[in-house]
Amino acid sequence: xxxxxxxxxxxxxxxxxxxxxxxxxxxxxxxxxxxxxxxxxxxxxxxxxxxxxxxxxxxxxxxxxxxxxxxxxxxxxxxxxxxxxxxxxxxxxxxxxxxxxxxxxxxxxxxxxxxxxxxxxxxxxxxxxxxxxxxxxxxxxxxxxxxxxxxxxxxxxxxxxxxxxxxxxxxxxxxxxxxxxxxxxxxxxxxxxxxxxxxxxxxxxxxxxxxxxxxxxxxxxxxxxxxxxxxxxxxxxxxxxxxxxxxxxxxxxxxxxxxxxxxxxxxxxxxxxxxxxxxxxxxxxxxxxxxxxxxxxxxxxxxxxxxxxxxxxxxxxxxxxxxxxxxxxxxxxxxxxxxxxxxxxxxxxxxxxxxxxxxxxxxxxxxxxxxxxxxxxxxxxxxxxxxxxxxxxxxxxxxxxxxxxxxxxxxxxxxxxxxxxxxxxxxxxxxxxxxxxxxxxxxxxxxxxxxxxxxxxxxxxxxxxxxxxxxx
Length: 472
Hints:
Layout: E1 11-17, E2 21-30, E3 33-43, E4 47-48, E5 59-60, H1 62-75, H2 78-81, E6 86-91, E7 97-99, E8 105-110, E9 113-118, E10 124-125, H3 134-138, H4 154-164, H5 166-170, E11 174-176, H6 178-187, E12 193-195, H7 196-202, E13 205-206, E14 211-212, H8 214-219, E15 229-231, E16 236-239, E17 252-254, E18 257-258, H9 259-265, E19 273-278, E20 282-287, E21 304-308, E22 314-320, H10 324-340, H11 347-359, E23 367-369, E24 384-386, H12 395-413, H13 416-421, E25 426-430, H14 432-435, H15 438-447, E26 452-454, H16 460-470
Parallel strand pairs: 1-6, 6-17, 6-18, 12-15, 19-25, 25-26
Antiparallel strand pairs: 1-2, 2-3, 4-5, 5-10, 7-11, 8-9, 13-14, 16-17, 19-20, 20-22, 21-22, 23-24
């Protein structure tokens, strides 16, 4: 279907602004369907320890994210960028960035045409941010939403600034996720526009009537002028206000989407498929039946949340905060121990070796509960190791048990029995941690009694482009 009733797009740029990297993908329409023509990704290395960062804060430097985005686009073929008619953008959900309208970015000529840099923009407070303690969250008004409020959610972060650093907010008059910021800059939007997907991820948003909890927020002094306007995923937010890295002025830009929904969109073709994604964090997802509406209020103890998808549909998601980040922390620990013992070992050299060691150990009685980052429904949950026997202390045994623990944790959140009741027939495996870790894949196949298909090309940038092909 053509976007907005116009001609069918022939070349779409999909962008994903992830937690650790930025990806751009050029997707073309062919007689046989959609094809990935080119893609490029760059690590953002954007983690920032800004002076004003809160304890347990997790912030990223927006300048560095935009620099990585510009590098990605500069690396794509100019000839194809000049044919782009539509741009789809997704990114990490929940987080919030603030900016000053009309001063959010600065445009200048680059080697590949006009590009923008971030200007009067705050750090991005990400979904991994931990400044809002359970005590702080319980002090906030109860949202009218099917989503439980958690630390790292945009509205919770705004409340934190309101209570702890009110002057910080006075410097800005616009806010959104990082992907909303990019759309606003490209289209020169005077008021940011946000999709239902990202609004739900901020908290204090009612998906049934597609509106913010404005009355509840106003009563507690929340700066409601910072809330973006909200539109449907798949709709057009605007047009590029000028040429961008060779992409013509006037290209249609879709409303920014959730990276999670776009990852699912890039691979989910059957309602009987479940999607298992393990990248920085981990998710297990199934489609809810047509016409499903989430409950009026969340069950705070439930590990399953309902994410708005496309065309009014919902996904049931067991979203764990513990995925590849746990493996990365384990690798970092091994490297640190080696350093303390007087050896210098690169973390990049450790990862393949621990995988090899674990492949040699098919079983481990060791039991690892790997929840070092807690879970949204159990924020104070920490990790533990039990059933430690003298014969199971090798690196291989520990890595095997850690990988099994990660998969078991997801399975405990959305049990196999529930998947069977929902008619799931196979699992689509995706995500960087799953792609590069054969031990994790073995444990997935051991724990889930369904055929597992690994989609190596499942990614949010491609999904964001696909949405633009199918949008109305």
